[in-house]
Hints:
This protein is α/β, with parallel strands linked by helices. It has helices at about 25-40, 55-65, 95-110, 125-140, 155-160, 185-190, and strands at about 5, 10-15, 20, 45, 70-75, 80, 90, 115-120, 145-150, 165-170, 190-195.
Amino acid sequence: MKKRTLGHSDLQVSEVGLGCMSLGTDKKHALSILDEALELGINYLDTADLYDFGRNEEIVGEAIKSRRQDVILATKAGNRWEEGKPGWFWDPRKAYIKEAVKHSLKRLQTDYIDLYQLHGGTIEDNIDETIEAFEELKQEGVIRHYGISSIRPNIIKEYVKKSNIVTVMMQYSLLDRRPEEWLSLLEEHGISVIARGPLAKGILTEKPLS
């Protein structure tokens, strides 16, 4: 499996990563998928605290705990929920992000996250405060690098201008080529694109989902 460097970081990731959102909550089945991916040479695993309200991170943590050094682990924060209550709401405040990372570390059974991503963003956010949270976590050694997950051009431009993000995750496939509008800007600043949904939920494979 060929590897690429994420932005101006020292993170060497496999060209194909595993997005863990759809692993499900059947632990045995999910672990078999994760084991197969790692066996095939995939070293980049991407999860989020919101997926199955933390259960996804727990399963990923279980899968990698004995081989943490072999994995580039990415997760996300910004969507807040309360145990036992349905739904969630957006919270990019510094205090919340610094609290959320503690819970993610516990679920993932690790003491650091390779790539911590803001799971969205709006132009009404206090972006300077959000960036401050990520920078402090980096200084504390809790995260190695940070990025954002967004397809909103106004958000992307603000983070490119103000922060040290190394990645932007966005939906990108032959059926959704909106990100091409911003590729030159990101390349100019040494920021990598992580393509989400490159096979358009299976439509672009020989065996599309029904």
